[in-house]
Amino acid sequence: MLLNILGAVGLMATLLVMSSTLAQSLKLSLAGRVVLLVVMGGWAGLQVALATGGVLAERLGPAPLIGIMAAIPMVATGLVALTSRRARAALLGIPTETIVALNIGRLMGVTFVLLAAVGRMGGPFPYSAGWGDIITGADAVLLTILMMRGRVSVGAVALWNTFGTLDLVVALALGGITFGTGLGGLLAAAPGGNEIASLPSALIPTVLVPMYMILHGVVFAQLRGRTIQAASPA
Q: Which residues have C-beta within 8 Å of that of residue 50, sequence separation ≥ 6?
């Protein structure tokens, strides 16, 4: 119960910080920011409703619904960025320093390690996802400090961004194998499938992971366009 409370508080705080920060960082009109916050809040609310109703644990054919929910925001954002020059410019205009700093919230990955320690999750997923997020979050702290001091290393940003992206990709794959397909039943016995599809953990793969994946994609685009940038002075 204590882990659930701590997880819920941490997740809500992370979501609020990310939502408000992104709304301020994107070069949108006031109406655009309101729409963005409404869409993000509505998506999170939908996931809460689905998790509460036990729907996220269901499958649509061979695909687990929770995996589909994780993919939708990434696909939608990608399509918008490809078809709208304004949206693409807004995403690329997010200061790299801000994106790195937002990833400090991934220190919350410690909850996966704790869930594994008390036997509520099993298999390789909680350790890979947990420690991968902890390393990404800890490195984000150091990188943010360096960027604030003007010591921006493109190589360091690229290395951090690559590791952070691979961490999420591996976590999604291991989650799908362990709690979804079971790799032909090989890993299906590992506990935690119901845990990850229930609150508060369900908000991680359906809301937080897509947001972080999108931001990693933005950094890759900034690296390619050589537009790595620090946040503007207040």
A: 56, 65, 69, 202
Taking the chain, what is the end-to-end CA distance rounded to the nearest angstrom?
40
Structure tokens at 191: 């506990």
DSSP H/E element including 115: helix 110-117
pTM of the complete model: 0.87
Using DSSP bridges, classify how beta strands 59-60 and 63-64 pair: parallel, antiparallel or unpaired: antiparallel
Cβ–Cβ < 8 Å for 196, 7: no
- Strand partners of residue 63: 60
pLDDT along the chain (234 residues), means of 10: 75 88 85 88 91 78 78 94 90 93 93 85 83 96 90 87 96 74 41 69 90 96 77 46
Of 47, 63, 61, the C-alpha closest to 180 is 63
Q: Which residues contact 98 (CB under 8 A, 6 or more apart)?
A: 21, 25, 231
In whole angstroms, what is the distance from residue 41 CA to residue 26 CA?
17
Distance from CA of residue 12 to its chain's centroid?
13
